[in-house]
Write a structure and sequence with these properties.
Length: about 325
Amino acid sequence: MHNNLKTKFCGMSLDSPIVLLSGCVGFGEEYTRIQGFSNTDVGAICLKGTTLEPRLGNIPHRVTETPSGMINAIGLQNPGTDVVINDIMPNLDKTETRFIINISGSSVEEYGEIAKRFDDTDIDAIEINISCPNVKEGGVAFGNDPDMSYRVVEICRKNTTKALITKLSPNQTDIAHSAQRCIDAGTDGLAVINTLMGMAIDTQSRMPIIGNNQGGLSGPAIKPIALLKVHQVYQVSKHHNVPIIGQGGITTVNDALEFIIAGSATVGIGTALFYDPLVCNKINDGISQYLIDNKLNSIDELVGTLTLNSAISQCDIDTDK
């Protein structure tokens, strides 16, 4: 691994700024079966979303390809917190990389209980998926209500000393305000962004392709939106030294660099792995070379270096010329 790629994130020492995203790599073992892939090539791995009790997930179809992306609605299929702690975590090779558990709940109390149970383990950090529906209060996603987001982060903060990373939903009016509320509640880091909601339709049956009718859109199609959201959140988070995992359609070295320049301390890779499982090495090599070419010693020197264009009023533009 290149020395200039080493960085710190929420107290974790990472050998690479790449974080493998939850839901894309199972419980850390899936891609290790592919020749040429190694968990040592990434800084951290976010494990599959885990709920308190086991879940079977949604009815099929759960995944469908769309132009420049894909929609998924897996439904948080997982074996439950106890199985993850007792059966899966002991098999994780902690010498390879850092491991982050992704937790999901249907109530504020469930989030708190899961955080409490993982507090007694050797997991490196906890990622809070606040895009889940709040079953007790009408089904609105926690992450689409800044006050509900605050409550979820707050109870997790009370129940663990682990680093907390809150995964922000783009499906809300003001993501920067939500970020501020999560910071106020005690989050140590932010993941920006979760998937956008989307739909695909089978024109023969005139029904949604996804069994759940709608799902999360990921891949290159969402990259411009994700970049803007990272920039907006960074305007808040930088004042509190709260780092960002920038994610959403990163498939190339240039994509990763854009996110870092916009304010991401680390970059999340997910959908790209499905068609190029060895993409991480390419991105590592490219970032390292970019730093050398631009006489930068580390990722930290590049984070948030975006210079905006000077604002031009529409009234100042002569449309007749």
